[in-house]
Automatic annotation (TrEMBL):
This is Branched-chain amino acid ABC transporter permease. Belongs to the binding-protein-dependent transport system permease family. LivHM subfamily. The keyword Cell membrane applies. Pfam families: BPD_transp_2. Signal peptide: none annotated. Keywords: Amino-acid transport, Cell membrane, Membrane, Transmembrane, Transmembrane helix, Transport. It comes from Amycolatopsis rhabdoformis. The chain crosses the membrane at residues 7-27, 47-71, 92-113, 133-155, 181-202, 208-228, 235-255, 261-279. It is found in: Cell membrane.
Amino acid sequence: MLTIWSGLAVGAIYVLVAIGFNIMFVASDTFNFAQPQYLMLGTFVSYTIVVSLGLPLVVALVVGGVVGFAVGVLEDWIAIRPLSGTGVHGELVTTVGWSVIMQGCVLLLWGSAPHRVPGAGSDSVLTLLGGRLSVNDVVLIALAVGLSFGTHYWFTHSKLGIAGLAASEDRQAAMIRGINVNRLSTGACAVAGALLGSLGAVVGPKTFAVFTLGSILVLKAFVALAVGGFGSFKGALIGGFAVGVVEALVGRYLGTEFANLAVFGVLIGVLLLRPQGLFGQRRERVV
């Protein structure tokens, strides 16, 4: 059971990044490859606030969110908006470039050495269902579940969420109906950045603050989203947990060198049986 809990805790991180991917994808039909870097940036902001400045963890949550929000707005203005609506999906390349810029800036500011990020109750251990896990792991798993259902409810029941769905489905039709698609895109990028930036204070105690964190997470979160289904927040939850558990089980019983192979094997198997993912939907257009 210890291995399962460990896999769920790591999978929760994949879920959080996948939620950030989905917020952008659902609201603006844009896949933002820079999304995991906001989580990486948040871990360094948390380290600076809590360790270097000695301020409470709640301050790190707020500052990480503000920094993520501001960087998200800049990314939309510089890397996404100039190519939105052109039909060439050039933002796939520009968001990769923005990811490299963010990683380079963090490397210049904080260096390449990993930093330990203290968390609330990160040293406390609980025993649940025969397995032991830290309080911080429990918080990670709870956040992954809560945010998955919360964002799903937001996009299916709120006016802004439904407007985002409309803009993603048909940008031109949404504009004709009076929806400001540019503002929605900026808001989605800023909110996703703020969410992951603030969560760096929770993820940091598990991963440490290291400038390569985003590069490590991007592939695993992408696999989680592909398995669950692009655009589905419930799929992001199931896919992220599945990737984490498979990775943990294979790493324990077969060796860590087989973990990545098993994860991508699961991806290939799911895509062969259900190309749109477990909870994804096919998009059809009548011409």
